[in-house]
Amino acid sequence: MMDKIIPWNEWIDLIKPYYPSGKRGRPTRGIETMLRMYLMQNWFNLSDAAIEDTIYDSYAMRSFMHIDFYKEQVPDATTLLKFRHLLEEHHIGEQIFADVNARLEKAGLIMRGGTIVDATIINAPSSTKNQSGKRDPEMHQTKKGNQWYHGMKIHSGVDAGSGYVHTITATSANVHDIDEAHKLIREDDYVMYGDSGYSGMAKRPEVKENTHLSEVEYRTNVRPSSLKTSDSYKGINWDKQMEHRKSSVRCKVEHPFLIVKRQFGYSRVVYRGIAKNFHRFNILFASANLLMCARAGRIDAFCGV
Description:
Blueprint: H1 2-5, H2 8-15, H3 31-44, H4 48-57, H5 59-65, H6 77-89, H7 92-106, E1 114-123, E2 140-144, E3 147-159, E4 165-172, H8 177-180, E5 191-194, H9 205-208, E6 217-220, H10 238-250, H11 254-263, H12 274-295, H13 299-303
Parallel strand pairs: 1-5, 5-6
Antiparallel strand pairs: 1-3, 2-3, 3-4
Helix pairs in contact: 3-6, 4-5, 4-6, 7-12
């Protein structure tokens, strides 16, 4: 499905201006070959060396690579490492994510008007048993429930009508969800959905001082402890009914997180620093949007643009 839906020529054109010409030194491998290898590395959460070995072992991966093994071999781990650094240096991941959203928009698959916001914690190694003897200085601790986590956060804004991710930001884990929420709202949104962590959004100074954000309706869930109606009440509990309606819309934001953290397996950072991990999350959420589009049977509509 991914082979059919990805606009290969357009993504290759994004990379081509920065890719070595190969006139000096060792001949370069084709951009499409490296891009296919890099995408599979992200989808299966494999290291540079592991994806090289796995391609040799997997017929499906070899078919996806479009390599004639009678004439050439799989690019080695060092070549993939340099390719990834090139993409990170020129922010190609952000461009790919923007390209996917632009195509979804042009195909009429994004509804507009409303955004669902949420954040998820991505764990980072807390051990100091490394070469520097220190933790990653950009990762921090935060408490969720009764448990402490060390790592970073990904904040996402999801289209309320379709469930596609349109905006993401990355911060350390100790940044509160509500601090990034205003960055996830689009210019034409008139309603925002969020969990109880976003309560009081309308009172934030960055919202009050912005003409558009101050007019947005913030439909956030309230904390269960604030619902005063007793469970033994025999009539219709309208408070719980309204909270259930909000949650039925807000649940769409969890699906992309499920794909990224469970299907793609990226629930723990593999790079030091937020910038490198943010680049990877742009690729992962772009892939998640493509996967949801393909599963919905919209490949022809997406590719038609």
